[in-house]
Every structure is written in C-alpha cells, then in structure tokens.
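Hi C.,

You asked whether I'd gotten around to modeling the 156-residue construct. I have! Everything is below, sequence then structure, no commentary in between.
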Amino acid sequence: MSEVADNIKIAQAKMEAICSRREYCCADIREKLRRYLLSEEAVEEIISSLKSNRYLDDSRYAAAYARDKSSLAGWGARKIEFALRRKGVASEVIREALCDIDKEKISERMQEVVLRKWQSLSKEEDVEKRRIKTIKFALGRGYSYDDVYAYVRSLK
C-alpha cells in the first residue's frame, strides 16, 4: 500500500473516532483533514464516507449546537444562526434547528440573562443609560430587539 493510501486510512479512522464521541459539522472535519495534507479529492471522499456511515450529519450537529448554545450559553436565535452560517451549515438546516428550540425556554433564558445584566449595572444612576447598556448586551447575545426592549422597559 502506498504512503498516501495509508494517510487516507489513518485520517479516516481518526475522523470516525472523533465523530463517534461528539457531533461535528462538515466544515470542522474538513479543517481537521487539511492538517493531514491530503488532496481535496481525498478530503471529500472521507467526508462522503463519514456521511454515508452516519458519523457526520450537519442536521444533527446544528440541532445539538442550537440546543446547547440556547440553554447553556444563553445565546439567542440570531447569534446561533450567525455562528452556524460561519460553520458553513446550510440555511435550511439552520432554520430547522432553530425551530426545534423551545420558544418559551428561549424567552425565559433571555429574561434571566437580561435581568442578571440589569442587576450588574445597579450602580448606574441614569436609568436610560442602564437600559441602553442592557439592550446592547442582549442584542450581542442574539436576542431580538423587540423582545429585549419590551422586557427591559418593564424593569424598574
């Protein structure tokens, strides 16, 4: 067997091993495979094999990513969407993943995050400045302006 064929088999075995431990998207695996200095054809062949053997699935990855980032990291839908787009996940897959997230839980999480930020700014005497800082923070977390604004307005 040639050295190139050995490298391909080694790379594929390593990718199968890491994909069996947690979810990855195609872009992540493609990046890892580039470290093996394989041809583009070999990289695509390995990715195709990983997909057909169900080691790699962007839909599963997007759903897990969206679920984790919304519940654990407190991210809103927009921030999750942008992060998945940067990873090269298809728009339709992103849309499905975001639909799977419980809207009530996102709203509750947004309120927790916003309230925590609001309380951390308690030394700010100007209420309007405090509101603006809180809104900017929440928008940076990916929550919608309308939801954030309505909630921040209700805080005293």
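If it helps when you're writing up: The first helix runs from residue 3 to 21.

Thanks,
B.
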